Recover the amino acids of this structure.
């Protein structure tokens, strides 16, 4: 390759950040050249053109297709199962059930946080506690033959009484999901004295709210392809974290971690529902072992509505006290929710916003998680938060009306600087709430919109407009260890980034390439990323919880700096200088103060000889006794047809403080996506179980389960980034 | 998963009728409803008879007497966009434009839209309900938020078609051919109420095919409109809807029909509204009385009484709009 072409690897004229001394941690960049830009994704072409290979795209010669026989009842016992029919279907190569060799596997449902609960079930549990639980599975040459095989299995069920509503589940005469009580857990929290707080209030209001069960329904179905090579298992899975799949599969199948390779390069949506393997993962692996052939097992859309998680329904009563001047005096919250038939975090963080969002001296909460005969929950974009927000923000609005105060002003008066909900009330590294509210209100034109819509409501006509707002904090979002990254610089100056984390569609790969580019002065497109593969990339936690960038970006930066340090040492030999006197300057390394004494990176003798420089980075710890949380405030205008009750969302604005905005395009994408899903939860989406008669889910398809369409979200959607320098969170400020 | 079936694409109606006469044969036109029904195992098929090769069924033509002939294979998009329909039969064009989503409108046909199967989630789901030959209606006492408030007896579906209410309101006729030859049926009586036969949605006998829809020449002073209220703005059926076809002399309504959608197991002619508005000037008081009359005899189920104020409010709004031209 010609030298000029190689010069093209670099962004010309870019001021590269200083390389810290060995062992010294870099400070967050004060100025950036690439990070923070609005850059298209590094894999945009692949995604748009269809050349990106998603796990559900994989096919192999000789591959079989798996299908799962699922219990059609919400609660039943398998009295007898006869799999012989399946074996007689053309094309069926493998049948797996609790009674077949290798099918007798345990399946633990374990909650470790925020409360401990555990129920050990089985891969094929004869006691089916929710509709869709796995009863048996088949592998066949075609998907149709696999389904035919499944249908040929005869099962004799003893149908048991069920409970499909968490409000009924806690009553004494409710059917029992397990042998003991339907109460999974009850948690209480208290600070101050709510009675005193209500006593000090000028106005006390109490209201009850409910949010329906919401389903993830990502575009790419849940599933994997599994293949054995001797005693080594490889799984291509649609997942948020290959290492989470590896550890659970290895544990359940009794394999060393090294023998389980999980690959997940692309992912067509998950929203929290693919943080862990499903039964389908283990079933595919077992069918592949039984048949000696690769097995592809992706669920049908209808199955995903039943068995791969949900945002639990929540029933919330909230009592709030306030003084006339807008000071909140007390909040009392009771919530009942359900994670389904097994411990699955039904009430996780359900009370968090009440505890932490607004300054309030007296707070008491009680949350109860109940079992029902329904599919187990899985984390879903900020577990607990949207539910709590629905209750808290409405009562705050009611309080504002009651004391005759603008709801923005009321919130403004109760902004905390410390995390009140946590032990020891540690401070946040940044509290962006105030700025989110101020700047958001200003950009939205809150005051004018309030006056305009109020005046409009007095006029004739049946289309009335109104504006509303709400604010939020997310419990996590700061990231943290562990993470290990490897950055490899090749002899031609191009770079390979080796990252275990998944890019779940949020643009992680793009952002990491931008971090490397920022540090090395190399164009992001010259950086190739290898990721999401337990065989070739390093351990990473699953991508989710808004923690991927703050976890991985600092690690990438550390690894890249390590590359620079090594290059400096190598160049010191060529330049006969002390490494400490050298400056890495993108294309060249030069002697500080003597710009003429320099060497091109690609001319460094040791690099040419060795062919590669490898920098390893580790994620350092977060600051002690500090809380790193993102904040936000959202505003919207709606039009209500007061004759029919139809609601049209006219416009929406989100102002978010999420740390440093690494890529403005992917940031805005996340905000718009979040708003859209919020509109779904608030307006169109709800799971419907046939509570009275059969307990079965009736709207298990994309027509009856109504995701918002492009016509249901406003074209006028604005994302405002509130960036506050954070020198404590991590070395990128992200 | 699809059942195994043979697929036939005859080129003549006669041939199609013969094939449809065999056991478990199903007619295929746009396929937007047939394929999901087969996949969801709502019913079985041994033979799928596509009529897509019969090109005579694919046209919109004005006849000599000024009426309009729409071939059954005309797509919903073509109906929505046809200039003659938009000009003379606005409610029909509006209704067609409100159907499902652009893809489904391009693929789905007007004949199929009339003959589609109910969307009741029990009927479509794993429930052996009355309409499928079972013993009970699961909607009664169940999850019936999207079910009917009129005409339910035994079964409580709402008819999902958007185009059927305006066709009934325009007094359209439907041409049918079958083993016994041709016949013509009023669109208003094409659909069958569950009280008459719970297992069928239309008057079609086995092996009969809808071939054409005939719209009479519009009367002088005729105004029409279609309104659809739904839970989301695309790819959704009506929670409530109304086709208004009213003849005006000045501000007085002299003739017309009002047909509700999302209300009953069949497109539901609201004689109550017609009685109030016909012969009257459409002033605020009349509109108010008409809207109240619309829901007076409604029988909501446990979870759909929201439809009462919804229909009432929607009718007020639509009558006001049509009054103002």
């Amino acid at each position: 390759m010609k030298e000029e072409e190689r010069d093209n690897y670099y962004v010309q004229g870019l001021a590269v950040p200083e390389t810290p001394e060995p062992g010294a941690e870099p400070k967050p960049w004060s100025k950036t050249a690439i990070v923070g830009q609005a850059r298209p994704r590094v894999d945009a072409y692949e995604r748009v053109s269809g050349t990106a290979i998603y796990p559900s795209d994989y096919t192999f010669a000789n591959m079989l297709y798996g299908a799962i026989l699922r219990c059609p009842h919400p609660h039943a016992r398998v009295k007898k199962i006869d799999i012989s029919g399946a074996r007689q279907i053309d094309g069926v190569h493998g049948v797996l059930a609790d009674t077949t060799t290798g099918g007798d596997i345990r399946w633990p449902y374990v909650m470790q946080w925020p409360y401990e609960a555990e129920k050990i079930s089985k891969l094929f549990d004869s006691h089916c506690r929710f509709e869709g639980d796995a009863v048996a599975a088949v592998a066949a040459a075609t998907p149709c033959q696999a389904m035919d095989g499944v249908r040929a299995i005869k099962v004799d069920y003893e149908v048991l009484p069920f409970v499909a509503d968490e409000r009924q589940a806690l009553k004494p005469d409710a059917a029992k999901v397990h042998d003991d009580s339907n109460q999974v857990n009850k948690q209480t929290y208290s600070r101050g004295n709510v009675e005193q707080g209500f006593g000090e209030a000028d106005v006390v209001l109490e209201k009850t709210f409910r949010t329906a069960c919401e389903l993830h329904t990502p575009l790419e179905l849940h599933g994997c392809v599994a293949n054995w090579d001797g005693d080594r298992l490889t799984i291509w899975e649609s997942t948020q974290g290959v290492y989470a799949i590896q550890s659970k599969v290895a544990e359940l199948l009794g394999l060393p971690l090294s023998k389980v390779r999980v690959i997940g390069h692309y992912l067509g949506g998950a929203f929290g529902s693919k943080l862990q393997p499903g039964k389908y993962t283990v079933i595919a692996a077992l069918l592949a072992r039984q048949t000696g052939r690769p097995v592809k097992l992706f669920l049908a859309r209808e199955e995903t509505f039943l068995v791969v998680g949900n945002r639990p329904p929540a029933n919330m009563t909230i009592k709030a006290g306030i003084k006339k001047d807008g000071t909140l005096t007390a909040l009392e919250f009771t919530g009942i929710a359900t994670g389904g038939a097994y411990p699955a975090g039904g009430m996780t963080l359900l009370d968090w916003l009440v505890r932490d969002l607004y300054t309030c001296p007296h707070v008491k909460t009680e949350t109860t998680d109940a079992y029902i005969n329904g599919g187990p929950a899985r984390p879903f974009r900020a577990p607990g938060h949207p539910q709590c927000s629905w209750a808290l923000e409405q009562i705050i609005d009611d309080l504002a009306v009651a004391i005759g105060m603008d709801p923005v002003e009321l919130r403004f008066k109760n902004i905390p600087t410390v995390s009140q909900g946590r032990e020891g009330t540690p401070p946040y590294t940044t509290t962006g709430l105030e700025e989110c509210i101020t700047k958001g209100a200003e950009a939205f034109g809150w005051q004018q919109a309030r006056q305009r819509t109020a005046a409009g409501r007095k006029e004739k006509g049946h289309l009335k407009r109104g504006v509303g707002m709400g604010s939020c904090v997310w419990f996590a979002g700061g990231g943290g260890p562990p993470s290990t990254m490897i950055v490899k610089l090749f002899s031609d100056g191009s770079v390979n980034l080796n990252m275990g984390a998944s890019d779940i569609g949020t643009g992680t790969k793009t952002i990491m390439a931008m971090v490397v580019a920022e540090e090395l002065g190399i164009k992001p497109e010259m950086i190739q990323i290898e990721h999401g593969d337990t065989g070739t990339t390093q351990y990473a936690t699953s991508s989710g919880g808004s923690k991927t960038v703050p976890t991985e970006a600092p690690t990438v930066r550390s690894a890249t700096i390590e590359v620079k340090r090594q290059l400096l040492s190598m160049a010191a030999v060529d330049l006969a200088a002390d490494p400490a006197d050298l400056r890495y300057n993108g294309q060249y390394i030069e002697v500080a103060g003597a710009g003429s004494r320099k060497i091109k990176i690609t001319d460094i003798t040791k690099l040419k000889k060795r062919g590669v420089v490898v920098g390893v980075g580790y994620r350092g710890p977060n600051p002690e006794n500090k809380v790193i949380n993102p904040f936000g405030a959202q505003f919207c205008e709606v039009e209500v047809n007061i004759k029919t009750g139809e609601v049209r969302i006219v416009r929406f604005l989100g102002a978010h403080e999420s740390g440093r905005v690494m890529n403005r395009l992917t940031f805005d994408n996340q905000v718009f996506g979040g708003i859209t899903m919020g509109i779904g939860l608030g307006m169109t989406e709800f799971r419907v179980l046939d509570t009275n008669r059969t307990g079965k889910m009736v709207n298990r398809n994309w027509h009856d389960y109504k995701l918002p369409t492009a016509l249901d979200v406003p074209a006028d959607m604005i994302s405002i980034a509130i960036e506050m320098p954070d020198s404590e969170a991590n070395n990128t400020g992200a | 998963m699809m059942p195994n079936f043979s697929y036939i694409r005859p080129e003549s109606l006669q041939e199609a009728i013969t094939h449809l006469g065999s056991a478990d044969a199903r007619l295929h036109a746009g396929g937007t409803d047939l394929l999901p029904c087969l996949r969801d195992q709502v019913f079985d098929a041994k033979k799928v008879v596509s009529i897509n090769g019969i090109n005579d069924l694919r046209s919109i033509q004005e006849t000599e007497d000024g009426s309009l002939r729409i071939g059954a294979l005309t797509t919903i998009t073509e109906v929505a966009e046809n200039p003659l329909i938009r000009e003379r039969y606005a409610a029909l064009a509006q209704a067609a434009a409100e159907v499902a989503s652009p893809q489904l409108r391009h693929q789905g046909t007007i004949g199929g839209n009339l003959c589609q199967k109910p969307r009741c989630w029990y009927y479509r789901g794993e429930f052996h309900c009355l309409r499928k030959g079972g013993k009970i209606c699961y909607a009664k006492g169940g999850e019936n938020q999207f079910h009917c408030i009129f005409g339910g007896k035994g079964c409580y579906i709402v008819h999902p078609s958007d185009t059927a209410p305006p066709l009934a309101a325009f007094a359209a006729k439907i041409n049918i051919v079958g083993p016994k030859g041709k016949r013509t049926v009023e669109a208003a009586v094409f659909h069958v109420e569950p009280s008459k036969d719970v297992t069928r949605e239309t008057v079609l006998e086995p092996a009969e095919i809808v071939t054409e829809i005939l719209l009479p020449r519009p009367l002088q002073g005729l105004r029409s409109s279609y309104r659809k209220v739904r839970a989301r703005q695309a790819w959704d059926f009506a929670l409530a809807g109304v086709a208004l076809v009213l003849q005006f002399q000045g501000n007085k309504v002299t003739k017309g029909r009002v047909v509700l959608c999302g209300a009953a197991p069949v497109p539901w002619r609201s004689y109550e509204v017609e009685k109030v508005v016909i012969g009257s000037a459409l002033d605020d008081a009349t509109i108010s009385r008409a809207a109240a009359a619309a829901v007076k005899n409604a029988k909501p189920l446990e979870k759909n009484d929201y439809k009462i104020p919804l229909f009432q409010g929607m009718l007020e709004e639509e009558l006001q709009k049509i009054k103002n031209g």
The domain at 3-31+479-618 of chain A is CATH 3.30.365.10 (Aldehyde Oxidoreductase; domain 4). Chain A is about 25% helix and 25% strand. Chain A has a mean pLDDT of 96. Residues 473 and 631 of chain A are 4 Å apart (CA to CA).
